[in-house]
Amino acid sequence: MKKSSLLKNTSILMVATIVSRVIGLLYRSPLGAAIGTEGLGYYGTASNVYVILLLISSYSIPMAVSKIVSERLALKQYENAQRVFHGALIYAAIVGGLAALAAFFGGKYLLAYNQQNALPALQVLAPTIFLSAILGVLRGYFQAHNTMVPTSISQILEQIANAIVSIAAGYLLISTFATDSTSRAIYGSVGGTMGTGAGVLVGLLFMIFVYSVNRKGIHKKIRKDRYHAQESYSSILKTLFFMVTPVIFTTFIYNANAYVDNYIYSSLMGWHGVDSGVINEAYGEFSNYYVTLINVPLALASASASAMMPEVSGEFATGNYREANSRILKTIRLTMFVSIPAAVGLGVLSFPITGVLFPGSTELSAWLLLGGAGSVVFSALSTITNSALQSIGQQKIALRNAAISLALNVAVVSAILFVSEKPGIFAVLIANIAFSVSMCFLNNLSIRKYLRFRNEFRNTYLKPLAAAAGMGVVTWIIYYGLYLLTRKPVICLIVAIAVAVPLYLILYVMITHTSEEEMRRFPMGSKIVKVLKILRIY
């Protein structure tokens, strides 16, 4: 395995993630215009329940399949790796099918009493859960082979199909069936969820095509396999169950806070007598504007974790713990290199970013982004450390940490909203921050215990933070200085971002003394070096 493969795979996934997230950002504004803020609230509510069922059935399947298959590939057990793939497909079909049935027939019991208008959108999402489970197995299988290209392309295609169908279906359903504001919101949310299903279907068809193209090469390796201790499907399914189930529960708890927060927020705000339309509008801005923006840098952390897992699992399986630690630290540094300036930039430019990207949003979205931008760093780090624990077989520890953090999350949002309805959606924001900080702290303690991992704070966190802080000050001055002169937020934002990116790179190199060779190892490092040479930094 080449040492550069981790950086290469991380770079590929990061680029694909940036492209897909940019597409996701761009279509949110026309989607909001099409279905309205209340419609976005129903869409967000249905999506939260969908995500919970997806977490239980298939969300962590790519990571689990990647780990199990990569371990067998590292030991050159090609036939057993293929049998694991087939067993994973059976597992995914069963759990995905059950979760889809639960969404369609039991959705009303999963929604808060004052959120039943989101039920049609949830029922439309039911088949998507089954398709996502199968898609997850295929993505994890190719990630285990140290190729992130199929996953990356499928993510981009999925997001493109999602954007097109969401907006088109929303407009079409509203214009055809809507008779008042409530029905407009309901049919609009249904259109939005139809886009999610269309995106997953396109991604699945592409992955099936990729597998069919590579099928001959895969079977050629299997025929040359000299390891004859063939695993039975019963043992594979048992391994999958005991391996995947803790991962699923960990990922479920790790991501369940969105559903739990929405449920508690809607219920307690309704208990205080707040109108359901007001509740939905606030949650619509939180889930579709704030969360969408925050998830851009967090998606990059997820891409890093996905690229890291098969490599750390392979090193751990062969007893090379020192190299496993090295790859974890390398992944954390890459993630912080992106996450820290992203958090600073989102906070400094929160008002112009939300105003330009989401013209239909109110100042609420900007205040949420300003208050929650810092959580990007903690959430990104917890994502990497969570993946590291799963890579070394400590799923139960990751599960315990997630459960403790979720309990803290529930306690915070419940306590705030039980006392008063005035904090509103900001109670959810505060609970989210508490969750991410708790996960980050507990996971770091666990990795230190089981891998004797030592975090390197000065170069990994403090120096990038210093560079990002300098960038933030200059960016704020440039944007608001230009705005006073031109009153054109779009132009001012473009100029500010255009200055911020190279400025951060310059400050980063000057403060960390990163060499040209080291910078080339970063995602898109060769292009960054070219820019810095033009600027005479190298």
From TrEMBL:
<feature type="transmembrane region" description="Helical">
    <location>
        <begin position="465"/>
        <end position="485"/>
    </location>
</feature>
<feature type="transmembrane region" description="Helical">
    <location>
        <begin position="159"/>
        <end position="179"/>
    </location>
</feature>
<feature type="transmembrane region" description="Helical">
    <location>
        <begin position="364"/>
        <end position="385"/>
    </location>
</feature>
<keyword id="KW-1003">Cell membrane</keyword>
<dbReference type="GO" id="GO:0005886">
    <property type="term" value="C:plasma membrane"/>
</dbReference>
<feature type="transmembrane region" description="Helical">
    <location>
        <begin position="397"/>
        <end position="419"/>
    </location>
</feature>
<feature type="transmembrane region" description="Helical">
    <location>
        <begin position="185"/>
        <end position="214"/>
    </location>
</feature>
<dbReference type="Pfam" id="PF01943">
    <property type="entry name" value="Polysacc_synt"/>
</dbReference>
<keyword id="KW-0812">Transmembrane</keyword>
<keyword id="KW-0472">Membrane</keyword>
<dbReference type="InterPro" id="IPR050833">
    <property type="entry name" value="Poly_Biosynth_Transport"/>
</dbReference>
<keyword id="KW-1133">Transmembrane helix</keyword>
<feature type="transmembrane region" description="Helical">
    <location>
        <begin position="289"/>
        <end position="310"/>
    </location>
</feature>
<feature type="transmembrane region" description="Helical">
    <location>
        <begin position="235"/>
        <end position="254"/>
    </location>
</feature>
<feature type="transmembrane region" description="Helical">
    <location>
        <begin position="118"/>
        <end position="138"/>
    </location>
</feature>
<dbReference type="InterPro" id="IPR002797">
    <property type="entry name" value="Polysacc_synth"/>
</dbReference>
<feature type="transmembrane region" description="Helical">
    <location>
        <begin position="89"/>
        <end position="112"/>
    </location>
</feature>
<feature type="transmembrane region" description="Helical">
    <location>
        <begin position="331"/>
        <end position="358"/>
    </location>
</feature>
<protein>
    <submittedName>
        <fullName>Polysaccharide biosynthesis protein</fullName>
    </submittedName>
</protein>
<feature type="transmembrane region" description="Helical">
    <location>
        <begin position="425"/>
        <end position="445"/>
    </location>
</feature>
<feature type="transmembrane region" description="Helical">
    <location>
        <begin position="49"/>
        <end position="69"/>
    </location>
</feature>
<dbReference type="InterPro" id="IPR024923">
    <property type="entry name" value="PG_synth_SpoVB"/>
</dbReference>
<feature type="transmembrane region" description="Helical">
    <location>
        <begin position="491"/>
        <end position="511"/>
    </location>
</feature>
<feature type="transmembrane region" description="Helical">
    <location>
        <begin position="12"/>
        <end position="29"/>
    </location>
</feature>
